[in-house]
Amino acid sequence: MPVPAARREEGDAPCQDAWVTDPAANASPGWRPGTVRDAAGGILALMLATFLAVTTELLPVGLLPLMSDELDVTESTAGLLVTVYAFMVAALAVPLTLATVRLPRKGLLLGTLVAYTVSNALVAVAPTFAVVAAGRAVGGIAHALFFSVSIGYGARLVQPLFTGRALALVTAGASAGFVFGVPLSTSLGAAVGWRTAFAVLAGVCALTTVLVALLLPAVAGGGGARRDDHGQAARRSRLAVVSTANALVYLGQFSVYTYVSVLLLAAGLSVAGVGPVLLGLGALGLVGTWYAGVSLDRRPRRTVLVVLVTLTLGLCALGLAFPALAPVLVAAAVWGAGFGGVASIFQTASIRTRGASPDVVGALVNSTANIGIGGGAALGGAVLAGYGVGWLPFVGAALVLVGLVVVVVARKAFPSTV
């Protein structure tokens, strides 16, 4: 039985979202999807979990020079800690999601947080690069499930009318990872050693696991898609288009962001200044997240275009400004603000294609994003080794521009109304 549409707030666009699976049917007894306010506790829990997930994934970005020196590997080799992690997620997200689709979502999510804790603790004490890579592999397996579960979880907590706002709020945890997690951990690593930064993160992961257990309401497994052959092929095609654009944009972003500390140092920034600059870039990313949150449920297509145009222009400006430090920082500010809205726009667009159940959609978003993250880290490493750091922003901008062209052409996958 379809879930009745929630009451629209004044100024909201008419909502045409429809669940491939009935969210109420997947909820635990006593829990019904409602408004964002109704689901505030659960959304906060997912924000906290997302914060730790992103911080765990990207912490090596700010510590690459320090880790490569102590572990006696090149910076491009150290960048493989991001590449391998991301490729594991890309390969495992869909099969692990399908294998665990009937398991309780809350227990599964808590299990991923425990795995993050183990991953960071293992990296902190690892004697060699090989053991560090093994610790990162544990985190990669957890990450393959985490975002697949959390995207579907966030969508299930609210009625379809509020999907954009709910997922933007959950994504704010990812932005907070950029704003606080990665920069503060980078500053800590620069001050007292990169191993200490991973050890502290392991402790915070353990504490967050307890908080999420207390705050997050339980929902059941993902279940299967509703039998509805009419129009399903078109919906799956739209989901494929959104997933492709998602991969391209992440590929462009992380061909640059993986080596942002190297780029900033080459522009004349001190080692001690890298953490604070990353903090500022992350804070500006919250602007992009805020914009997506207030716009996606009213003007979805325009929101996607504004975010991607801003990201492309920021990367182009970064390449043109390099190596002058002050212009580089200004261009990086535009770049950071643009990227802040990326996760929200693609998560929401994917859910709204109705091309699969929310959990499978989450797995596809997770997988394609990490294809971009891992591919971007590998591509950026090749560009860094072959052509130099100054070419990274231009390569990134070109890839994001291709993703933008996909969005412009695919009007049905990225519609003007919801």
Automatic annotation (TrEMBL):
Signal peptide: none annotated. Residues 42-415 form the Major facilitator superfamily (MFS) profile domain. The keyword Transcription does not apply. Pfam families: MFS_1. PROSITE patterns: MFS (PS50850). InterPro entries: MFS, MFS_dom, MFS_Efflux_Transporters, MFS_trans_sf. The chain crosses the membrane at residues 42-66, 78-101, 108-131, 137-155, 167-191, 197-219, 239-260, 266-292, 304-322, 328-349, 361-385, 391-410. It is a multi-pass membrane protein. Keywords: Cell membrane, Membrane, Transmembrane, Transmembrane helix. It is found in: Cell membrane. It comes from the Bacteria. This is Sugar efflux transporter B.
